[in-house]
Design goal:
The complex is a heterodimer of chains A (357) and B (205). Helices cover 66% and strands 3% of the residues of chain A. Chain A is mainly α. In chain A, the strands form two sheets. In chain A, strands 1-2 form a two-stranded antiparallel ribbon. Chain A is globular, with a radius of gyration of 21 Å. Chain B is of the alpha+beta class and 205 residues long.
Chain lengths: 357, 205
């Protein structure tokens, strides 16, 4: 009795902490296991079996990889800027993990009469926070590439930054379109708006309201996470590896890990922005059991996210890497005008249908 | 020229249509192709558990044969070492003492016989050179090791076990086709040495 009172009294304090721990653990776990899934999936797409030695079906492979990464010799080049060299992977990892904070992983849960959202921080500028933190992520790559004091690493870092510039604009504009549609910057509100099936003659998912925005956002997210076909910062044939040429052991592991965490989080963002987030059909019938609804919602969010992770991998093992000029053409000459046109068209449509002023 | 398959296409350089310029239909098509491979039969062979069937003339790890009484056939004549193009074989000869007749078939034997498996190219010339039918390549695979020195195989690894039921089976290497091949008089190595006759690729080919 007293315990529960104490728990509820301080719940506002401890619940976000627990959520932070959970999001941290789930992101890391999913990232670790998406390396395994990626290898397995890639193998299946290529008529191979993939890792199959560590444990049944090779499911202990991520642990083995992790142990190997930690046990390997750490090499820091003499000519490198040692502080920045170590800081690079830390920034990449940190920003990748930070983006998970504003994503609502499920509807509100009810503990002892109090309502808590399954979210670390339900800030009302969540979308801005996401864009901001994701953009900082490229600093990890740039600093790492620069601090290596290696021409190839520097070229990889330069390519990363120029790619980031050309995609961030299109991404930002498509996010503005989304904000116009939803009329809010709060991520939990965006998810809540996609609750339900049918509204004003539209399916409530933002994907059905504006598929073009999703397409632009998706392509930009691919570029943002440095996944193929836009993984120009890392190119063995041109850059002897890329920004991480000089990196070894767990520092390299952090970069690779950050990529997977990024992929997981941007998949979560995509399912949140365009595919209803944690909403699951027919949940109104279960109004009396909010915690059950929350559990199902969190499950559906996870399934949607993992689906997009799979799509990322599917694309990676299908499409070859873009050439640098092709990438610039696509970014500056196609995606940015297209996203601007989409923005204008959305505005006109909303004005015409009386949604805004 | 008649094409072997009907898959070849004549390349045409033409202006791309709008749908082609979008690339997305092509991307979707490509992704469907990769996805269809997800359900196809896998070609992987789980090696230590499953072994790929080998040809009957497969040339694997060597064996030094014993005769039917259990005596080593090798007389350390060195012909295999001379024939070896990779110079992987070394040996030291020794004289048979009294009372060792059951161990070695002839008066001379190999006290040390070593093959460096890292140099060996498994060409089988040692086998062809051997006048005593002592060395054969078998269908066994040379196992992996962690140290370079471990790949130098001495007599402990090369001579087959004495027990009758543990002898190394070289029957696959002695298939009729192989024997016929080895004895085919058309091949230079089966002909008597004639210094006036030139051995080598015939002219006009």
């Amino acid at each position: 009795m007293t315990l529960s009172i104490v728990l509820v009294t301080f719940a506002g304090f401890w619940f976000p902490l627990i959520m932070a721990g959970l999001v941290f653990a789930v992101s890391l776990g999913v990232a670790a296991y998406s390396t395994y899934i990626e290898r397995k999936f890639a193998a299946f797409l290529q008529d191979r079996l993939g890792p199959s030695r560590a444990g049944p079906w090779g499911i202990l492979q991520p642990l083995a990889d992790g142990v190997k990464m930690v046990m390997k010799e750490e090499i820091i080049p003499n000519v490198s800027n040692k502080f920045l060299f170590i800081l690079g992977p830390a920034i990449a990892m940190l920003t990748a993990l930070m983006t998970g904070a504003v994503i609502p992983w499920g509807p509100k849960v009810n503990i002892g009469g109090e309502w808590f959202s399954l979210q670390v921080a339900d800030v009302n500028i969540g979308v801005l926070y996401l864009l901001g933190v994701v953009s900082i992520g490229v600093y990890g790559i740039m600093i790492g590439g620069w601090a290596s004091n290696n021409k190839y690493a520097l070229l990889g870092a330069l390519r990363a930054s120029s790619q980031m510039i050309s995609y961030e604009i299109a991404m930002g504009v498509s996010v503005i379109t989304l904000i116009m549609l939803t009329g809010t910057l709060q991520t939990s509100e965006i998810a809540a708006q996609q609750h339900g099936f049918w509204e004003d003659g539209w399916f409530t998912w933002n994907f059905f309201k504006n598929p073009l925005t999703f397409l632009i956002f998706f392509i930009c997210a691919l570029a943002e996470t440095n996944r193929t076909p836009f993984d120009l910062p890392e190119c063995e044939t041109e850059l002897v590896g890329g920004y991480h040429t000089e990196y070894s052991s767990m520092k390299l592991g952090f970069y690779l890990f950050a990529e997977y965490v990024n992929m997981f989080v941007s998949s979560a963002v995509m399912s949140l922005f365009f595919f209803g987030g944690y909403n699951f059909p027919f949940m109104d019938e279960l109004k009396d059991h909010p915690n059950l609804v929350a559990a199902i919602g969190a499950g559906s969010m996870l399934v949607k996210t993992l689906f997009f992770v799979m799509v990322f991998m599917w694309i990676r093992w299908t499409i070859p890497r873009f050439r640098y000029d092709q990438l610039m053409n696509l970014g500056w000459k196609i995606l940015i005008p297209l996203s601007l046109a989409n923005l204008v068209a959305t505005g006109i449509t909303m004005w015409g249908t009386g949604k805004i002023g | 020229m008649q094409s072997l398959t009907n898959r070849s296409k004549v390349v045409v350089k033409k202006e791309m249509s709008f749908a082609e310029k979008l690339y997305l239909p092509a991307v979707a098509k490509g992704m469907m192709i990769t996805m269809s491979h997800l359900f196809k039969k896998k070609v992987t062979i789980n090696y230590p558990e499953v072994e790929r069937p080998r040809a009957e003339v497969y040339r694997g790890q060597h064996v030094l044969k014993r005769d039917e009484n259990g005596a080593e056939r090798c007389t350390a004549c060195g012909l295999c070492a001379v024939a070896c193009p990779a110079e992987a074989i070394t040996m030291e000869a020794a004289e048979r003492k009294k009372g060792e007749e059951g161990l070695y078939r002839e008066e001379k034997y190999a006290a040390v016989y070593e093959i460096n498996m890292l140099r060996c190219i498994f060409c089988g010339l040692c086998e062809e050179a051997c006048p005593k039918e002592a060395i054969f390549l078998t269908d066994r695979i040379v196992p992996t090791e962690f140290e370079r020195e471990d790949f130098v195989y001495g007599k402990d690894k090369l001579v087959e076990p004495n027990e009758k039921n543990e002898r190394v089976n070289i029957a696959p290497r002695q298939a009729q086709s192989t024997i016929d091949f080895k004895k085919n008089p058309e091949y230079a190595h089966n002909q008597l040495w004639d210094p006036n006759k030139k051995i080598g690729p015939k002219k006009g080919h």
